Each structure stands twice: as C-alpha cells, then as structure tokens.
Amino acid sequence: TMTREELMEKVSEKMSDKRFQHVLRVEKKAIELAHKYGVDVEKASIAALTHDYAKERPDEEMISLIKSKGFNVELIEYGNAIWHGILGAYLVKEELDISDSTILKAIELHTTGSKDMSELDKVIYVADYIEDGRRFPVVEEARQVADVSLDLAVGFETKHTLLYLINNQNKIYPKTLETYNEWVVK
Ligand code: DGI
Ligand code: FE
Ligand code: FE
Ligand code: FE
C-alpha cells in the first residue's frame, strides 16, 4: 500500500498541473467534510486524490476499454464527462492497486451520484462541486448548504447540475435522473 506522497506522484503523472491542483483542492474539501460528517478521513483523502485519475486519457483508449472490458457500450455516446468516473474506478483498481470497494464506488459515482450513496460517496460528490477553485453563480450557496447538511448539499448540487445540463441541451445520463429522484424530489 502506497503513502499519500506516492499516490500523489502517480496521480500527478497522469494529468495536467491545472487538473492536479483541482484534485488537491477536492482532497482538502473532502477531508474537511469527512471530519464534519464523521466519514473515514483517510478514505476521503484517497478517493479525492484518485477521483479524476482517468479524466485526461485519450478517448480512443477509453472507448477500447469500454468495449474490451464489458462496460455498457451506451457509455460511449455520453463522452468523457460520464465515463471518466466509471472507467476511472476500474483503472485506479488495476493501475494503483486500490481495492477498497467503498473508495472505488465513490470514484465511480463522483460525477452522477446515485440513489444509494454512502456518506463517503456524498463527501466526494459534494467536495468536487464546491472545492475552493470552483467559480459559478451558485457555488457560494452550495458551500453554505454543505455547511448545514451533506444530504441537502447532494440535492442542491444535483438540481443545479441538471438545470445547467438542460439549459445547454446536454444528454442526461439516467443515473443523474436517478440521483435527482432520490435526493431532490420532495
Ligand atoms: O471531472 P470534474 O470536471 O471535476 O467534475 P465532474 O466529474 O463532477 O463532472 C464532469 C462533467 O460532467 C460536468 O461538466 C458536469 C457533467 N455531467 C454531470 N452529469 C451529467 C453530465 N454531463 C452529461 N452530458 N450528462 C449528465 O447526466
Ligand atoms: Fe470528475
Ligand atoms: Fe462533480
Ligand atoms: Fe473533479
């Protein structure tokens, strides 16, 4: 098993400095949320450091993996935004030798959420959205909600992500709607 420094080295090799700085800010926020909401801080750190591990892999490599490793081929049409978490969990397990299923699930769900989210899944999902470098109109409100309730923060993020996606006529991944139905609908 790797030290945090070894893990940081492996992750930074696979992405631009700009994205690695995002990863470090997600880790900082995830650790903060983990302390506040009673989640395993070491797991939060590892999941945060690895959540975007696959984000900068070439599309051709990712599409080959989807086909050869038996992932749902419908992933292909959703593009990197959706497949980097799902394939990321697979690549983190294969290449970084991280086998903790609770960490791998948090990586897998970090973009879309799901109806069944552990507290660790919620911490990573929310930390990615509100890390200190994020700048969008409702981020300050999202940070305030996360200060009050992790579940409400999941709902707030899901609602505003969907509003954004619909405004831009983006394709909605079914899991995103599943998350909406569980965490937003009254
Ligand atoms: O990888 P990050 O940029 O740090 O953040 P992320 O993994 O949470 O989100 C990546 C992108 O995915 C972001 O622009 C929002 C988008 N996204 C989330 N749900 C959906 C989606 N895109 C589409 N097309 N459909 C979704 O359901
Ligand atoms: Fe991501
Ligand atoms: Fe996110
Ligand atoms: Fe991210």
Automatic annotation (TrEMBL):
It catalyses: P(1),P(4)-bis(5'-adenosyl) tetraphosphate + H2O = 2 ADP + 2 H(+). Its EC number is 3.6.1.41. The keyword Secreted does not apply. Keywords: Hydrolase, Iron, Metal-binding, Nucleotide-binding. It comes from the Bacteria. It holds the Pfam family HD. InterPro entries: Diverse_Catalytic_Enzymes, HD/PDEase_dom, HD_domain, YqeK. It is an enzyme of class 3 (hydrolase). GO terms for molecular function: bis(5'-nucleosyl)-tetraphosphatase (symmetrical) activity; metal ion binding; nucleotide binding. The keyword Cell cycle does not apply. Residues 15-142 form the HD/PDEase domain. This is bis(5'-nucleosyl)-tetraphosphatase (symmetrical). The lineage of its organism: Bacteria, Bacillati, Bacillota, Bacilli, Lactobacillales.
